[in-house]
Design brief:
Blueprint lengths: L20 H4 L26 H15 L1 H15 L3 E3 L3 E4 L32 E19 L5 H4 L4 E11 L4 E7 L6 E22 L9 E9 L1
Antiparallel strand pairs: 1-7, 2-3, 3-6, 3-7, 4-5, 4-6
Length: about 230
């Protein structure tokens, strides 16, 4: 009342109030006041006419040409995330077999019966072979070496120390993998990868405890993978 200063700090009529700096950053429309009688412009996206159909066709064409790679990616994911299943051959045979120790004894699910070749000794070149009626994807091989998984029976016959695994595809292509076994009773596991496999051969390359009165014995062979 004494100094004459207005107590009301409101802006003068017709003059816009200046916003704080932190509000002006996010409000661009507040920086430029609109003229009387005008409206703010609305931003609209152009409606796609040919862009969307062309994009859909391009993606469909890319998926068609990359279908083999996508199939491999899907199969790889299944192999990495899923557990391999037992693969049962439809036919088995051996290069030769001793009386009472046929090739089927190595694939019957019992580790107290075994296959042995007809002649005694290291059995070099003798083999087991298994066929599948449909192509399989092999992932794991289990071998029980010797005549039995029991320790007191294990050393009574020769045991294979080296095998050359041969995989045959439905197109006749062959791939080989060396397998080295420990001289111990029980199952031994090996990671073996093969696709489109219809036949597997396991020749003996060397043996432990080979003698003229012993035969190289394999108690059990098991395959795991997917059909």
């Amino acid at each position: 009342m004494r100094c004459g200063i207005l107590l009301d700090s409101a802006p003068e009529p017709g003059r816009p109030r200046r916003l704080p700096w932190w509000r002006r950053i996010f409000r661009r429309d507040a920086q430029r006041p609109l003229a009387a009688g005008s409206r703010p412009a609305h931003r609209t996206w152009p409606r796609p006419r040919l862009t969307l159909p062309v994009l859909v066709l391009a993606l469909a064409a890319a998926a068609w040409f990359a279908r083999s790679q996508l199939s491999e990616v899907f199969t790889f994911t299944q192999d990495q995330t899923g557990d391999p299943k037992a693969l049962h051959p439809t036919a088995v045979r051996g290069s030769s077999q001793a009386p009472g120790h046929r090739a089927g004894a190595a694939f019957d699910g019992y580790n107290n019966r075994y296959w042995a070749p007809a002649t005694a000794g290291p059995g070099t070149g003798q083999y087991l072979e298994a066929d599948f009626d449909r192509p399989v994807r092999l992932r794991k091989l289990l071998i029980t070496s010797g005549r039995s998984a029991k320790a007191d029976e294990f050393l009574t016959q020769a045991r294979p120390s080296e095998l050359t695994l041969t995989l045959v595809t439905s197109e006749g292509e062959r791939t080989t993998k060396g397998v080295n076994l420990q001289d111990q009773p029980g199952q031994q596991s090996f990671d073996v990868r093969g696709s489109d496999v219809v036949r597997i051969r396991l020749p003996v390359d060397a043996a432990y405890g080979a003698r003229s009165d012993r035969r190289t014995a394999i108690a059990e062979v098991e395959f795991f993978g997917r059909q």
